[in-house]
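Worked problem 6 (solution included).
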Amino acid sequence: KNMEIDVLEATHDDLVAEFHQCPLVQAWEKLGYEGKELELLCDMAMDGDRGIADQMGLTLDITKTIAAGDGCCHSTNKNRYPATTSMLPFSYGSIFYYPHDSGIIWVSYR
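Solution. The predicted structure is:
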């Protein structure tokens, strides 16, 4: 299974999800990384996620990480603009973001 995502909340402007597996963390652990080094690698990778979210008009807040030993990555995406703001459709992992007249529709697929 890839990432094992549970969507906890999905509205037109917010998406709260937990990721229960991370292929990057698994690969880094196989290479011998652990502790603070593993957390740093994870944070560096998440900078890419934050950049993608920023370009989409979202704020990404990650409060738990698998790399820190939390058991899951807990993320919250918040739309920085009114629900009527147009966005291009975008897919990230197993989450598909799609704009609609009434706001953002968040669709999870596996």
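Discussion: The longest helix spans residues 35-55.
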